[in-house]
């Protein structure tokens, strides 16, 4: 009786041991993609780098998405890809899943976006100033510029300061207009209080892809230069008094491209520099201090 009872139990134990051995000894595991976020816990306004290592350099770039929104990935070294995810002060704080697909493999990465306090300003506008708006012409040209995603990479290393003047308004400052908090507004760049006529230099190499003037209808931005640094990274310089470059020119880091002014909607001479990644204005400070590859 005892023997008969033990036998089935023995067989069950034996098969469990066999399964355990098979698992440990490596019945083929799903191969993992080598993707990582840097930083994984960014603050509002940071640019997140997605690094992806593939087995082979395929012609098809990896796909990087958050809720179906695609972020272009570029080859930066053999079998090594990089995509940028811009974050802004308007983004919702918290976790989101970044889906990376390459060579038929998928990896989910958790991006934990952390809160950051931005200073606030109160602006009181009279009716005339409140009515000053972007013209359709400048809106369309500036929007098209911000959407550029040139496959080449022109920049290298950390970005330079584009003007010697002190920073008067940093990135991300939020505003109250006539006492009402502007939900969609944040300061999309950095202001330098350089003297009228002082040099504006290219902070990094790139191609001039936008030149707009007051005469053409740039009533809000004033005289404007847009430099494409490649791969979805672009600088815009506004309120200029002088423009030294033409569309199509390639510029080097440190090259004088124009001069500080107060054209467009500016209360006094200053340079506004906006740095855009995949169409969003991000904090240029990490790009200035550490540089992004
Ligand atoms: Zn500004």
TrEMBL record:
EC number assigned by the record: 3.4.-.-
Keywords on record: Hydrolase
Keyword Calcium attributed: no
Enzyme class: hydrolase
InterPro entries (alphabetical): Cell_wall_metabolism_enzyme, Dup_hybrid_motif, M23ase_b-sheet_dom
Keyword Hydrolase: yes
One Pfam family linked to the record: Peptidase_M23
GO MF terms held by the record: metalloendopeptidase activity
Segments forming domain M23ase beta-sheet core: 186-284
Name this polypeptide is given: M23 family metallopeptidase
């Amino acid at each position: 009786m005892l023997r008969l009872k033990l036998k089935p139990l023995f067989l069950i134990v034996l098969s469990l041991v066999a399964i355990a051995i098979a698992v440990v000894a490596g019945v083929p595991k799903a191969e993992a993609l080598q993707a990582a976020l840097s930083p994984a816990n960014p603050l509002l306004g940071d640019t997140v780098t997605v690094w992806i290592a593939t087995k082979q350099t395929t012609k098809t770039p990896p796909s990087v998405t958050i809720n179906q929104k695609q972020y272009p990935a570029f080859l930066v070294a053999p079998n090594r890809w990089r995509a940028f995810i811009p974050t802004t002060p308007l983004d919702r704080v918290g976790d989101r899943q970044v889906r990376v697909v390459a060579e038929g493999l998928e990896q989910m990465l958790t991006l934990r976006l952390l809160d950051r306090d931005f200073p606030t300003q109160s602006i009181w506008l009279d009716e005339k100033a409140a009515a000053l708006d972007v013209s359709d012409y400048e809106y369309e040209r500036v929007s098209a510029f911000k959407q550029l995603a040139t496959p080449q990479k022109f920049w290298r290393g950390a970005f330079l300061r584009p003007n010697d003047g002190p920073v008067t308004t940093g990135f991300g400052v939020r505003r109250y207009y006539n006492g009402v908090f502007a939900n969609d507004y944040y300061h999309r760049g950095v202001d330098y209080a350089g003297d009228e006529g002082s040099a504006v230099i290219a902070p990094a190499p790139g191609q001039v892809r936008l030149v707009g003037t007051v005469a053409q209808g740039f009533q809000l931005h004033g005289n404007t230069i847009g430099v494409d640094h490649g791969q979805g990274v672009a600088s815009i310089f506004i309120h200029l008094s002088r423009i030294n470059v033409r569309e199509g020119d390639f510029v080097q880091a440190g090259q004088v491209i124009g001069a500080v002014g107060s054209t467009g909607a500016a209360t006094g001479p200053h340079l506004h520099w906006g740095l855009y990644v995949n169409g969003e204005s991000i904090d240029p400070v990490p790009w200035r201090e550490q540089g992004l590859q």
